[in-house]
Amino acid sequence: MKERTTLIQAGRKPKAHSGMVNTPIYQTSTVLFETLADYEAASTQKTGDPSYGIAGTPTHRGLTDALAQWEGADHCLVTPSGLAAITLTLFALLSPGDHVLMVDTIYGPSRRFALKELKRLGIETTFYDPLIGANIAKLIKKNTKLIFLEAPGSLTFEMQDVPAIVKVAKQKKVLTAFDNSWATPLYFKPLEHGVDISVQALTKFVGGHSDLLMGSIATNNKDIWKRLMDAYKHFGLYVSAEQAALAARGLRTVEVRMKRHFESAMEIIKWLQKQSKISKIIYPPLAGDAGHKIWKRDFGSGGAGLFTFLLDKAYPEKSIHVFIDGMKVFGIGASWGGYESLILRINPETVRTATKWPHKQTAIRVHIGLEHPDDLIADLAAGFKRL
Ligand SMILES: Cc1ncc(COP(=O)(O)O)c(C=O)c1O
């Protein structure tokens, strides 16, 4: 089946649920059994059936089965947020005395977890240049256990040479994990590229409606899966059945929405390229972008409508506020992947240590939502006038 059809069908079993097209929301803590023997078989995991609500319900199973199919994974679990998927992966796979390599353009709170919690546990982190490619070999030490990738970076959109990094990791027997929230498996399937663990913030495009926080972790590696599930259980993590149903609903339309986000972003960028108050647009799908070659090779045809542009100079603080505060269609807020467009000033120089942000101009990040591009262009045009 084509991927679009998979996204519609995966994880749904109407016959098992009185014909209900969507898997119903099973809301429970207690699970009842006919006999003590049945309970004991479930609770010692002989049957694979849940013996208590925290082990998940058919609602959860419907979602994780669908996500696993989409990722090309044998195993998938969902977490209470995208960040929880990242921190659980790091916690489950690393032990005191280990070393982890993290891309310098990693999502800020992932960096914070490494600098605070991993450090406290005696786990050392080295941040690497996203453009490092095969030279990552030089940073691998005897105790390096994991390389954590994210591409493109969600502020400055550097792409990474994933095949080159994975090749080195495999030679050196180091695991790899990839935060794939920007592209989703629609445009990049980390596991197909040899990455061991694929992580997504479902909060973004799978949720799609800015009303859900959730993450997912997918893998084909049985040993990794066991370590992830053990940590998940030991922490007592859980995602509610209502939220799982919302994520499954988002999955059915994610392809259509992402296509529209992407097309609108391209249309708006075409207009932005002609604006005198803009000096640079950073977006790998754009021909001429530093990451374009890799994007074309590995991601192919799409991705998020999330990009950054640099104004023509470093504007005074007040001008930036006047520019952004007057927006009528763009909302001012973090996150992305929802139906509504968002705008923020960003300060990339403050969240990197291995590399230096070379630009002095004010940087603005936008998420292009599902509004008509003409209205977003008019909003930006009025903003440039204010500026
Ligand atoms: C690249 C990336 N990964 C992970 C996350 C975390 O997702 P969540 O907000 O669900 O914790 C975010 C959130 O902005 C993100 O931008």
Can you characterise this structure?
This protein has 387 residues and is an alpha/beta fold. The chain has two domains: 3-250, Type I PLP-dependent aspartate aminotransferase-like (Major domain) (Aspartate Aminotransferase, domain 2, 3-Layer(aba) Sandwich); 254-386, Aspartate Aminotransferase, domain 1 (Alpha-Beta Complex), CATH 3.90.1150.10. The chain has twelve helices and twelve strands. It has helices at residues 3-9, 36-43, 58-71, 82-93, 108-120, 162-171, 184-187, 222-235, 241-272, 292-299, 317-325, 373-386; strands spanning 75-79, 99-103, 124-128, 144-150, 175-179, 197-201, 215-219, 278-282, 306-311, 331-332, 342-346, 363-367. A seven-stranded mixed beta sheet has the order 1-7-6-5-4-2-3, with helices on both faces. The protein has a five-stranded mixed beta sheet with strand order 8-9-12-11-10, with helices on one face. Helix 6 (162-171) links the parallel strand 4 and strand 5 (175-179). Helix 4 (82-93) runs parallel beside helix 5. Bound molecules: pyridoxal-5'-phosphate. The site of pyridoxal-5'-phosphate has 13 residues, from helix 4.
